[in-house]
Give the backbone structure.
Amino acid sequence: MFDKNLTNLLSIYNPWWDDASGHWRDDIPSYHRPIVGEIFADLKELPQMISITGPRRVGKTTVAKQIICHLLDNENIAPKNILYFSFDDPEVYGSTDLQRIIFDKLIDQTTTKQGDKNLCYYFLDEIQRLPKWELYLKKYYDLKFPVRFIVSGSASSPIFRSSQESLLGRIKDRHLLPFSFREYCLFKMRNKTGFSETITRYGGLRELLLEGKCDEIVTYLSDLDNELVSFESDIDRAVISYCREGGFPEVWELTDPVRKMEYLMEQQVRKVLYEDLMSVTQYRKPENVLRFFVYLLAHPGMEINTTKIAKSIGVERRIIEDNFPLFIMTDMILRIQKFSHQPLRVRKGNFKCYPVDLALRNAVLKTWDDYTADSEMMGLYAENLVAHELCKWSEAIEIAYYRERDKEVDFIVTHGGGKYLPIEVKHRKYMRKIDGLDHFMKKYDLAFGVIITRDRTIHIENNRLYLPLRYFLLTN
């Protein structure tokens, strides 16, 4: 590609070079996810490069464009000092020669030189398409060019993950998952007067739970309950729609359930299984991998034994053991280990899995029903939602489940030396026994445990906090 052609191509990707406040902003959502503020802070406080990773179609490009608007509007960065480019562009992706020279050509588009005081910001999307991309970034970072690199790539690409690891110490990763229930409600009810302001004020439940401050939690959530009375029906509808449609924004825009399922199957399942993972390992029978994935989605929260799964679905155990780590890498499955009082010890054996988004399960299993009235199924969905939230707790050393003979606890949050928070999800209409929670609390001399329920009442009984699911999800 000649320099002139590259310049023409870049002008399409960077419309702010000609008009910083033009119509290109019309397609950028006004709603900002929390990761946007986190990256703002990183750019101000950290010298490292920044990567934005996550599943396909989760909003990584939108986040990049929102940060560009912030730099233009609030940091007074010159438009020409902000460059965006996607390595998914067919003019670049199809040529080995261009792939070899494109990065240096991009740098040449600015006046950036060693010692230049004008800091430039480079937003490089789908960076994994550029072979050896980490070496290019490392070169300019180590030479201390005045360039801040913000790169993004699909977490479903194991190649991206392995390249990223070679930049440890030089890159800060921000991981973007599908919308949480809290984010979903904030987005869907952003025009409801007072809702966003109320939810924004109540975001510190996690700290209170980890510190075991029962009385403060009851007061905190009782106040929240009073403030959300006028939004009760809206939240009820949000629970139904979120359990069905999940956290992928583009799914919400489709009106036909069949199209929603087709979209998820194409964008999230087939492309990951048959494109991303095929770039790492060549399957002789990819349908066996899909069969394994469908089994995991059909059994959320069930304790899994690889030997039994292999026999049940009729595939070799090797297929499961070889491909399961790749499923985890793609962000399609969350894995929960069995509890050990030595959480950092490498363990083998049984484990539990949860789909990263409930809509994936609905799409693969071809169901779009409202399960909130089915206490058994909603119990599984509630456990899945809690697993999503816990896996994002930065304070947690490990999230595990506990099982000893007939005693079980859904989740154990290890957050310090000998500090455990046991959490049991009891969302079924008729609450099962909680002797597993009592057993664990007694064994490890704990004065506090949590039971997440389907009710709206908040109370403490025998050092157990009964916490409504909706408030656990809305305040974390």
User: Anything to note?
Assistant: The domain at 3-175 is CATH 3.40.50.300 (Rossmann fold). Residues 31 and 324 are 35 Å apart (CA to CA). Residues 257-276 form the longest helix (20 residues). The chain has two domains: 3-175, 183-474.
